[in-house]
Amino acid sequence: MATFAFLDEAKRYLCTVFQNDSDVFKLYLSNDAPIVGTDSIKTDITEITNQNGYATFTLTQTWVETGAGTGVWRFKNNADITFTASGGSFGAFQYVVIYDDTPAGGTSSLPTDPVLGSWDVGAATTITTGNSFLIDLDANFAIYELS
Q1: What is the signed CA dihedral for 74, 76, 79, 84, rounded to 10 degrees?
Q2: Cα(141)–Cα(9) distance, rounded to whole angstroms?
Q3: What's this model's pTM, rounded to 2 decimal places?
Q4: pLDDT at 19 exceeding the cut of 80
Q5: Which residues partner with 90 through β-bridges?
Q6: Closest Cα to residue 57, out of 26, 83, 81, 84?
Q7: What is the DSSP string of the chain?
Q8: What is the pLDDT of residue 81?
Q9: Which contacts (CB < 8 Å, 24+ apart) does range 43-51 have?
Q10: Which one, of 137, 147, 146, lies nearest residue 96 by Cα?
């Protein structure tokens, strides 16, 4: 998988908004390129239509230290994620976006649906009937690490 790119505001949200242990984080596909310096909430980055085997995905995330006393923390899902087209195609998309679905404040200090970041899969992609798109996280299912 490509390198995860944090949005600028997400770095601030890590300290003030995201509750990595208890919030509900979701993942969606978009063909709208995230603008790292200005996008900050889900409505800034258009999701593709939920259809034919694609739907917004709820992560089962954990926040764990990589080893006792290492000071390296990993935000991870419990498995790789696969979408399989059924009954038609879905896409086109180029970006896999993660956002926090829990905050509903609607202010700059507590925004609704703040985006954490995204992966760029390299090109606009359409998944045709019977084919799958795999979000292949690393061996530890890490989304990102902080050290």
Answers
A1: -140
A2: 24
A3: 0.86
A4: no
A5: 127
A6: 26
A7: -PPPEE-HHHHHHHHHT--TTTSPEEEEEESS---TTT--BGGGSPBPP-BTTB--EE--EEEEESSTT---EEEEESS-EEEE--SS-EEEEEEEEEEE-S-B--SSSS-BSBEEEEEEEEEEEEEPTT-EEEE---TT-EEEEE-
A8: 97
A9: 43/113, 44/115, 45/95, 45/97, 45/115, 45/118, 47/97, 48/90, 48/91, 48/92, 48/93, 49/90, 51/88, 51/90
A10: 137
Phi, psi of 63 (to 5 degrees): -125, 105
Both structure tokens of 38: 């200005």
Which residue shows structure tokens 């998309």?
Answer: 93
> Which burial class, exposed, middle or buried, applies to 104 when counting CB atoms under 10 A from its CB (0-12, 13-18, 19+)?
exposed
Tell me which amino acid residue 88 is.
Answer: G
Tokens of 121: 């899969």
Contact between residue 53 and residue 86 where contact means Cβ atoms under 8 Å apart: yes
Give the model confidence (pLDDT) of 53-62 as tens digits: 999 999 998 8
Tokens 């059924």 sit at which residue?
86
